[in-house]
Amino acid sequence: MDAAWAALSLSLKVAGWATTINLILGVAVGYALARLRFPGRDLLDTLLTLPMVMPPTVLGYYLLVLMGRRSWIGAWLYDGFGINIIFTWQGAVIAASIVAFPLVFKPARAAFEAVDGQLEQAARVLGISELGIFFRVTLPLAWRGILAGVLLAFARALGEFGATLMVAGSIPGKTQTLSIAVYEAVQAGQDDVANTLVLITSAVCVVVLMAAGRLAPGRIANR
Amino acid sequence: MQLDVDIRKVLRSGKRTFHLNVRFNASSQRIVIIGPSGAGKSLTLKAIAGLMTPDSGHIRLGGRTLLDVQAGINLAPQARHVAYLFQDYALFPHLNVRQNVGFGLAHGWFNPHERDRHATVDQWLDAFHLSVLAQQFPHQLSGGQRQRVALARALVSQPQALLLDEPFAALDPALRGQMRGELDALQRRLQVPMVLITHDPQDARVFGEQVVQLHDGAVHDAFEAEELSA
Amino acid sequence: MQSMVLKRLLTAVALVAATGLTFAGDLTVSAAASLTNAFKEIAQNYEAQYPGAKVALNFGASGALLQQMAKGAPVDVFASADQETMDLAEKQGLVAAGERRDFVRNSLVLIEPADSKPVITRLEDLGHPAIKRVAIGNPASVPVGRYTKHALEAAKLWSVVEAKAINTQNVRQSLDYVARGEVDAGFVYATDAALMKEKVRVALEVPLDIAISYPIATTAASSNGDEARRFVGFVLSPAGQSVLKKYGFRQP
Q1: B75 at the A interface (CB within 8 A)?
Q2: Structure pTM?
Q3: Chain B residue with minimal CA distance to A220?
């Protein structure tokens, strides 16, 4: 049972970090793609969407090749700082972030594009700085769409298995997330452990969905 | 107030090209730019506000150079100290009337709180008979009420000039006359310089101390401004 | 035109029927991961010798394969990397009684990445600070992990190594991690190490007081009993054994 709670807290930690990273990066990228016009914009959008359609094991393999000890980045990190991403929970966070990134930036882009540009123009003439406009006009009008994406991204990060298994391995307490723990329990014939883990995961998903329902803002009309 | 406009811009949309070539020099407190739809009135007004950047030329308002392409001067809209009234008002839907009106007074990253009181905002709400509506949201207001909110919001920061984009086009005819009268009285009381664009000659009659006519014939034709003294 | 299509269709039906008259359909063989290369070649030879036979191969850790069968996967032949998993299969009634035969032996080796500085000369060197990560199959479901744990417990090194262990899902994953240099050492079979001579270096053969003996059996639920038994016979025959020997497996 300790293993189950360890797996749960690890899964929440990994998914939490991955979603936070994606929230910041996804909103920034979504905003940039919505507002900036440059050649190759749509190509960039497609490339950034790839992790959503690529099989997670393929992604895991790419990450292994790009960040493993023998790779440029991995060797530089290891020789310079003694940091190895593979087999660490940070590696699991990177895998989960990449896999869930499109789930944030795509809805964010759509939400920003749906904001009436004239409102931003009005704010400009009223003397508000660009950053002020983003936080006071654009974001308040776009955040509902973004939130929907963020919740999906959290669920996806929570359930991430293929890429995580390849990059982070399965070290109980360190990188053995809930999905991996279920997999190994089934492989070892430990059905009771598997059942417990599955129940816990399902309960967490239900809680996340209920939170989503609460967070959906009060209808402005009823205020 | 002196308004010196001399701008050129080429706009392309698919196969069509539109040449904007507007040059006029007005020195009145009440300027009307009149012309049919598609004449380039809105573009001109936006250029004055800094919401559109011409390819070449200059714009000087009240002695200040807002734009001088050759000299590399192009003030951001935030720095021009003019007020712009959009045709459909562009009220912030997520803020109530009070927050909308006080929007320009808050300069940080946060909107004024819905129950914040501010003396200046209160004055303007009173002046426009909006106090009773202070907690309402734009979608709950009528067309005329929305226009008043937009005006109050625009005037609260004491702009150097008030730019109005077809302010009465969205109102029904009965209301138009009333709103014209209100705006007329307001401008005379405040003495704020005003540039109004419209296709309605009645507006020119009421507000036009100086009238600038814009024409656009066939799409490819270049056109020039004509000046008519009142 | 239509008569050509019809002729082709009839020929196809006849062929299928003909195959059905001798031995029915495909064979599904679940085999331990370490048997991957050897069994692929054996299956090819088998199909060449008996035209019309088709062998579908399924590789994985023996424990995982057992679970698949326990949950109803339609397997005809099961080849495990240790007796323990086969015992479990028998206990659960998954393999036909009296059908099981030992068909090869293997040995356990400790390997290091080929390009790393050699650190290990004896098992005790696993405690060396330079060895930070060791790839070991998950003992709960992977036979090579169980053999490893058994050997390390006998040498009183299990607790030391367990702290550095990276659990893998099967022996080939351990091999891969060592080959990539992601771990400092790993436990695999001698036959696996031989496949990647350029990337891994055998530091030592791990002393084990039990034999690593692989059993093979036809399953109780097989719908293809005759064909399954013929395949097992082939694996045990000189033809099958010579292939296994080629890959480094020892005689049973």
Answers
A1: no
A2: 0.76
A3: B94
